[in-house]
Amino acid sequence: MAGPLSYLLCGTPRTGSTLLCGLLTATGVAGRPESYFRQPDEHAWARRLGVPVAGDGSFDYRWFGRAVRVAGSTPNGVFAARVMWGTMQRIVDGLDASPPRRDLDVLVDAFGPLRMVHLRRDDVVGQAVSWARAEQTGYWQEGDRSSAQARFDFGQVADLVRTIREHNAAWNTWFAERGVEPHSVTYEEVTGNPRRAVHAILEHLGIELPTTWRPAARQRRQADALNADWIRRYRAAQRRSSDADGVDGHTGGEELHRWMP
After folding, report:
1. Crossing angle of helices 85-95 and 154-177, rounded to 10°
2. Would you say 79 and 73 are in contact if contact means Cβ atoms under 8 Å apart?
3. CB-based contacts of 18, cutoff 8 Å, min separation 6
4. Angstrom distance (rounded) from CA 207 to CA 115
5. Selecting from 3.40.50.300, 2.30.30.110, 2.40.50.140, 3.10.20.30, what CATH number does the domain 6-34+72-259 have?
6. pTM, rounded to two decimals
7. Which is nearest to 117 in space by CA: 143, 78, 149, 63?
């Protein structure tokens, strides 16, 4: 593979990506993956990276892409960024020049030879519950402050379960249609054995993990008894809905909100 290696950590929210990004950055050889392209944070990143932002909030996206590549690279030239499915098209559109080209070509032109790491979570309900709670409270990671009280909402969790499944399927389709073979890793693997997970990723990338590297103390686990209670209530509501289907042929979906406090 010619030129410095680049990779994208592709996923969906609440899959342990912040933990994994920290672990990869700490190796000193695997780039500095961050959510540089998360739309709500783009202006902050642009200013932090020295990209001029106009009074109306606009900035040169390709200039921004070049600045991100520098910021996201470790001294060995390896670049990394974290990308959620919902932002992929925006990144391509921003980096592309007319006439439109294949999205993978646009990404390679911007970041160099690319490989992909696909991060997902086996427990989709647990992921949706975590996502719903973060959206309600504004608490996404350590350092954030909760801005509202969390309240179980079956409809919100169900919508996020569908979104997660759709986005995971969209990633799989994107990889397949472009002939990309990503390295797949799960939240459960990252939290269960972080060293093994990082070693497997670097092996896929063809990068040697420094023998002296050890996973630092993990971030405080955010899931707690409230998450467990929401998961239990969501699954119980699903069972009641399934029972209703079997009895009278109705989905029971309209009734689910009546069971919430």
Report:
1. 50
2. yes
3. 141, 219
4. 12
5. 3.40.50.300
6. 0.86
7. 78
CA dihedral 167, 169, 171, 175 (to 10 degrees): -170
- Hey, is 190 helix, strand or coil? helix
What is the Cα–Cα distance from 225 to 207, expressed in whole angstroms? 39
Which tens digits make up the pLDDT trace of 235-244?
A: 999 888 776 7
Model confidence pLDDT, tens digit, residues 94-135: 999 777 789 999 999 999 999 999 999 999 999 999 999 999
What values do phi and psi take at 6, rounded to 5?
Answer: -130, 150
Q: Which DSSP letter does residue 205 get?
A: H
Q: How far apart are CA 91 and CA 98, in angstroms?
A: 15
Count Cβ atoms within 10 A of the Cβ of residue 191 and give its class: 0-12 exposed, 13-18 middle, 19 or more buried.
Answer: middle
Give the distance from CA 42 to its chain's centroid: 16
CA distance linking residue 115 with residue 117, whole number of Å? 7
- How many CA atoms lie less than 13 Å away from 180 in the CB half-sphere? 23
